[in-house]
Amino acid sequence: MNQLDEALSSLIGQWNGYSTGLITALVLIITYSIMTRVEAEIHPMLLARQAQGSPVRQEGESPIYRGSSAPHGMPLNSGLNVKEPGASKWSTGRDGDLRDIWKRSVLGTPEGEAPKGKGKILTVLGSQKVIEHKHDSITRAINLIGQQISSQGGSKVAIYLPNSVEFLATLFACSFYNLTAILLPFDEPEDVIVSMLQRSGADTVVTAPGAFPFDIVVKSYPALKQLIWVVDEGSKHLDWNEVPKGVGGSVNVSTWQDILNDVPVAAGTDLLSYDESKEPNDVVIFWKTKPGNLEEMVRLTQKNLVSAVSAQLTAVPSHSRFSPADLFLPAASLSDSFPLVLTLAALYSNASVALNSVAGTSSDIALATIGIAPTVVVATPETMRKTHVETTGKLTSAIASVAHWVQTRSLVQNGAMPVASFLTQFTDNLRPSIGVTPGKLRLLYVADSAGADTPTLSEHTLSDLRIFTGARVIYALTAAKVAGSVAQTQYHDYRVHGDGTGSHFGPPVSSVEVFLRDSGSHKTAEDGSTIEGQIIVRGPAVSGGLAELGVLGKIREDNTLAYV
Ligand SMILES: *[C@@H]1O[C@H](CO)[C@@H](O)[C@H](O)[C@H]1NC(C)=O
Ligand SMILES: *[C@@H]1O[C@H](CO)[C@@H](O)[C@H](O)[C@H]1NC(C)=O
Ligand SMILES: *[C@@H]1O[C@H](CO)[C@@H](O)[C@H](O)[C@H]1NC(C)=O
């Protein structure tokens, strides 16, 4: 007792202003770290092993990897599980096709079922001009355009349009009228357009005046029978039925507006009834490879597409799925399968969809999101890299750098999206402007195209993008023969490895399984220490069932797929 008493007295005797300062600082630090302590959004164990390898493997190949929502021994995700009204909750539904996607988008969520609502379909023409399209009027366009094309004997319909409601209506018209839709990448040189038409054997083209080299196509592609111009408001008065003399005698030219205006407004607004047991025709896409190489033509069946849509719907945690509260914007071209599949997923979830014709042709995210406040965006890696470079260039002040460091720490160390704080105010004005209401964006999709020259985004860049946009970022690997994506990072995966220059594509999505075939020195080691080789994808979302991607990949220690 005596000793204790002496110790205390000497402590108090030595107490001075420094001690007070030190203790106060210590208390403040402890309080701060307790108050700012955040739970990781997902248990780190779930990110440490993201895919399951099959217990056995073939000679010269890696084990077969699947994401955790499609365990081995179970069928892969093959479709939308569409049930007829009144069907038992436990019955298995159909895989469905594009017609079911449109039908669900038209019907919306039934009364009394949460979350209630019906998505809107918007065309964005500028910051002041956003047009809402009624589902009935799009259904009417689907019916009338489909009727027109089939009555003229069309069967293979090339769509050469920017992202627009006419693009989607023509695509759905092809499904309802059992025509082959051919999605041509927009804004291509004349010779490329002609070559794509020749290779696909299109007999009908739906396009916009000014964008499509009509004279040249008519001369060099005599198989063209029918052409439908989508005329914008400004040039409606021109008589597009007047085919220039000398050319085009055999092509039946009409305009979208005439086809719709020539029949009474009430006609054709009912959804066509359809034979669900028969699958409508395929969708042909052109996959851009390295510059200077011919595009790869790929035939995706309706089954490929719906399985990819379904895989996207289940790839995000259920509390964050697309819902009627979302506004989805494809800022990449709908002629690419990944943006297309996500757009179909948004329609199927009754989310609103905004279409902007500059999307895909401009790499400016602010321009693509003008006039609206999207919550979910799919953008190209070129666009996001540009955004990253521009925003990083603005992070010059010391306080902004500290704020950025704190936010990065929250993401990478704590596994949680940074919350707004005193410090983050200093970076708010540096954020890229995405949409009219800052902070609305919640999810951003970006995809790397295998075998094309798209810039790869590093883990570090993706982490920065999460901070700059305030949104979760999903990074996917896409390939020509696979509808949607092959693999994609998980919603809550914010990790950055080492110096952050590497990147990975998460686990395979639920519509495919992936394995690697030995190639030269890239092989699966006996002891499993390295797993490398040609990426091979198999499953219902793959055109023809199996595809070799022609690129080398590896399975990392956390069982995610990455390039070698
Ligand atoms: C969308 O509407 C359909 C059809 O009415 C409904 O079955 C479905 O649950 C809705 N989906 C969402 C995500 O609200
Ligand atoms: C073009 O279509 C119209 C309306 O369907 C039809 O009357 C006409 O005969 C067609 N012309 C040609 C050249 O096929
Ligand atoms: C569409 O046409 C193909 C033949 O080209 C046929 O096999 C298929 O059953 C048809 N689908 C529908 C929905 O009629």
From TrEMBL:
Q: What is the lineage of its organism?
A: Eukaryota, Fungi, Dikarya, Ascomycota, Pezizomycotina
| InterPro entries according to UniProt | ANL_N_sf (IPR042099)
- Keywords per UniProt: Membrane, Transmembrane, Transmembrane helix
Tell me what this protein is called. AMP-dependent synthetase/ligase domain-containing protein
Gene Ontology cellular component annotations, sorted alphabetically: endoplasmic reticulum; membrane
Task: Tell me a Gene Ontology molecular-function term this record carries.
Answer: long-chain fatty acid-CoA ligase activity
Q: Which residues cross the membrane?
A: 15-35
Name the species this protein comes from: Pseudomassariella vexata
